[in-house]
Every structure is written in C-alpha cells, then in structure tokens.
Design brief:
This protein is of the alpha/beta class and 263 residues long. The chain has eight helices and twelve strands. α4 runs parallel beside α5.
C-alpha cells in the first residue's frame, strides 16, 4: 500500500531529475570552442626578431606607420567547454562561441590543423606577392619578395601583406607613407587579381587591433555588420572589396582628399 503524495511533494520529486539533468549539462563538455582576440603583427616591421617583408631586386623605402594583421585564438579540440562557458560567451564582448568542427574539422588533430593553416598562409603569401607586384606593374622575375610570419597560419593576412609590399616599394605613389604614419590594422584574404575575401572573426579582430593601438581597421565589405556589432571606441572601419579600393581609401585618408568609404 502506498501513501498519496501531496502536490508540493510530487513537484519536488519530479523536479529532482530535472535538476540533476541541468547540473550534468552545466558541467558536461560540449562540442564548441571559445574564441578570443589574438595577437597582431606589424607586417612593415619585425616579428620575433625577423623582418616580415624582405624585398630584393628593387629599391625599398622607409616606412613610419604600421600595418597590423590580426588574429583570433580558440580553445583546443580537447579542451572542455561547458554549458556555463557557452552562456558566458554569448553575453561577453571579448569572446565568441564557435562550433568545434568549424575550428577543428572532424578527424583532424591539432597538428593537422596547424599544417593546413600553414599551407593556407603560404598560398596567401604567394597571392599577396602577385597582387602587389601586379598592382605596381613590376615583374616577379626581377623583384623577389620573402614573407615570414612565424607561428601564425591561415589566409586572413593576405590583404595586409599586399599593402605592406606596396608601402615598402611605392608608398602612396608620391613618396609618402601609405599609412600616413598611422597604425592601421585589418583582415581579409587576397587573390592574385587583388580581390579581397571575407575571413570571419572580425568582431574579435577589431578588439585585438584597438588593443594594440590601431585607429583604422580595413574590413571586407561583406563583413561590415559583424565588425560594427562590437566595434571598440576609437576605431574607424573602412570597408574594401579589392586591393585598389583599399589603396585608394588609404591614400584619400592620408591626403585628406577624396572619399573614404565607411560601413
């Protein structure tokens, strides 16, 4: 024979499994990675004691500004990300929650991802060199460009590499710095024809840029809305679609003449 539970008792009994499930979910690892603003590097200078851009076969010029490529960092594939981490990340401005498979494709180890990112970086550097020399009408048989950026992979520095090569070779076309002496950051892929592509993570990259002193950020136009979402105070967005549009915008900004696009 069983005694009948009162309504409060029944609710309490039913609530126990729910509480247990919520507690388990709160601490169970989930298939996400937490991304944060990463390092930036001035492509016009040295990185870890080595010049990022070395050019032979043509005269180069001294530069006074900075062109900083930007990165994000994410927790590793074996890191434990809980429901609490995910909730915190949704409300944080300096973190983003990303599906783990988007950062670490299924079946790939950290080493495999690193190799893939380094291969993408090499392809990006080749495209940047072709785009820059093509823009300046210089022959890649006479002018040699060596790009080195240790411990950083992926294609997202392509646009900044290209602008760095142009600034070292030609500046703004009239002897002045392409940067106008400013610290300019940005992101975007580049192809050999000078087309700029989207990369992702721009909201976090703008924060890394402002943290490291940038006042201007070049962003692929398709990612304007993402960049504006958590834009740090004091950072100006300039949308670009091609290498020419990026150079034109920087020259207009430096000279104070012409139109400088905005998101």
């Amino acid at each position: 024979m069983f005694s009948r539970l009162t309504r409060p008792q029944a609710l309490a009994v039913c609530a126990l499994p729910v509480v247990a499930l919520l507690a388990t979910a709160a601490f169970a690892p989930l298939p996400f990675s937490v991304a944060q603003p990463g390092d930036t590097a001035n492509v016009l200078g040295d990185h870890k004691g080595t010049p990022v851009i070395t050019i032979t076969g043509a005269p180069t010029r001294k530069t006074s500004g900075q062109l900083r490529m930007t990165t994000i960092v994410a927790t590793g594939p074996d890191a434990s990300v809980s429901l609490g981490d995910v909730v915190d990340g949704w409300f944080a401005t300096d973190r983003a929650i990303m599906p783990r498979d988007a950062v670490y494709p299924s079946g790939e180890s950290v080493k495999e991802v690193e190799r893939h990112n380094l291969a993408q970086m090499e392809e990006s550097q080749d495209a940047a060199t072709k785009a820059a020399l093509g823009y300046l009408h210089l022959s890649d048989k006479k002018v040699k460009v060596d790009l080195k950026l240790a411990d950083i992979g992926g294609p997202s520095a392509g646009l900044l590499f290209t602008l760095g090569i142009i600034d070292k070779l030609d500046g703004d076309g009239s002897g002045g710095d392409l940067t106008g002496g400013r610290t300019i950051a940005g992101t975007g892929t580049i192809d050999a024809d000078g087309k700029v592509g989207a990369v992702g993570g721009v909201g976090l990259k703008t924060q890394a840029a402002r943290r490291d002193g940038a006042t201007v950020f070049l962003v692929p136009r398709a990612e304007c809305s993402d960049a504006k979402g958590e834009l740090p105070k004091g950072l100006r967005l300039i949308p670009v679609t091609t290498l020419k549009s990026a150079v034109d915008a920087l020259v207009a900004l430096e000279k104070g003449k012409g139109s400088v696009p905005s998101c």
